[in-house]
Amino acid sequence: MAEQAGPTWQDDAGRDLVRSFGDRMAMFVRGKGARVWDAEGREYLDFLAGIAVNSLGHAHPVFVEALAEQAATLAHVSNYFATPPQLALAGRLKRLAGTGESGRVYFGNSGAEANEAAFKLARLHGAASGRTRILSLKDAFHGRTMGTLALTGKPAMQEPFLPMVPGVEFIDSTIEALEAAIDDRVAALFVEPIKGEAGVMPLPDGYLESARALTERHGALLIIDEIQTGAGRTGEWFGFQHVGITPDAITVAKGIGGGFPIGALITFGAASELFYPGTHGSTFGGNALGTAVAGAVLAEIERADLVANAARRGAQLREGIAAIGSSLVAGCRGQGLLIGVALQHPVAKAVVAAAQEQGLIINAPNDTTIRLVPPLTIGDTEVGEFLRLFAASLASVEDALLLDSAAAPVSGAVPA
Ligand SMILES: *Cc1c(COP(=O)(O)O)cnc(C)c1O
């Protein structure tokens, strides 16, 4: 119970924190740009950015000033009232998402809350038109709450918490599977433009266009989860904007707050009229503090043209990774600064550990994929430094594999 009962921070974490996250890999005390420092003063290049959250990097002056200024002005008043930063952010999100006049925004405090709202939107649409089916993709990730877990296509994650909220069916990520599954009893289809947690897995070419046509034909909502792909990360403001479609709703979180917890459901057209007074709410959602910070973060992404930077630096990273010529690397998936490096062997965790040794923070959504989601602000210096550290990390794991003669190529490796 004592604060800092010690002897080490690992002891404190192991005793006091919920066990669902496993052992913490380090304890960070400070960050600046794409760098973080641990309790021993060691510096790391941060290419995880809090899992695609710190769009502007750490301690960006725009983030710091917006937070301090709004905290000193008005932090929270509840949703009985409006505030200028809330209205400004709603307008900005509508403009960036391209909803036009008829769009509306619901604010929550996380990705899961944004998707919970989207699930309720789907139920309202279903209730109004006699539809009970909701389609989601196998291997999709939409969150950890009971509602969003029901949308998450990972049986192992659901299993300890059965029964699930009913009505959700999981289909393969192919146009054929969607064609076979959809009918007039489907209320909504949920999709991620790139399945981030599944290992940065893109949808097949033409999927979103077909999904739009099929959902429209059958009167179902197309709800796109942009929580990981949004806020400019893929080289467009939102992933769906790489193809010329208009969804019925998108959900955003992670990168829009730059480190402040905020999420939102953005609706388009007729879907904007489904929620009516009393059907949903949140005490903290859309408070002045969070919306001021997210507004400032998005304004800075626009001002500094970081969406274009994400596309450019993403291409530079892909080229550089290919040029390393590591026998461990099969190739890269993803778009912009959402990159999945596919490995030839299930050694992703060893690569992550080797990188940390080198002073580089990256992560492994599965055994054969390294995920790179650095701040959108990175430039030549960070790209160069990353490539040097990543090459060294791969080389040390390659050496270990050569020593371990038992290691054989794995047939289940995810292709690039
Ligand atoms: C992270 C994520 C979520 C969940 O967001 P939380 O803020 O952790 O609740 C949902 N969907 C996708 C695609 C995500 O990447």
What report would you give on this structure?
This protein is α/β, with parallel strands linked by helices. It has two domains: about 130 residues, Aspartate Aminotransferase, domain 1 (Alpha-Beta Complex); about 240 residues, 3-Layer(aba) Sandwich (Aspartate Aminotransferase, domain 2), CATH 3.40.640. About 35% of the residues lie in helices and about 20% in strands. The chain contains 13 helices and 17 strands. The strands form four sheets. The protein has a seven-stranded mixed β-sheet, sandwiched between helices. Strands 1-2-3-15 form a four-stranded mixed β-sheet. It has a four-stranded antiparallel β-sheet with strand order 13-14-17-16, with helices on one face. Strand 1 and strand 2 form a beta hairpin. Helix 3 runs antiparallel to helix 10, helix 11 packs parallel to helix 13 and helix 12 packs across helix 13. The radius of gyration is 22 Å and the shape is globular. The mean pLDDT is about 95. Pyridoxal-5'-phosphate (PLP) binds next to helix 5. It is an enzyme of class 2 (transferase). InterPro entries: AcOrn/SuccOrn_fam, Aminotrans_3, Aminotrans_3_PPA_site, Class-III_PLP-dep_AT, PyrdxlP-dep_Trfase, PyrdxlP-dep_Trfase_major, PyrdxlP-dep_Trfase_small. It is found in: Cytoplasm. Belongs to the class-III pyridoxal-phosphate-dependent aminotransferase family. ArgD subfamily.
Please supply descriptive tags for the structure shown above.
416 residues, alpha/beta, Aspartate Aminotransferase, domain 1, Aspartate Aminotransferase, domain 2, 2 domains, 7-stranded mixed sheet, 4-stranded mixed sheet, 13 helices, 17 strands, 37% helix, globular, binds pyridoxal-5'-phosphate, arginine biosynthesis
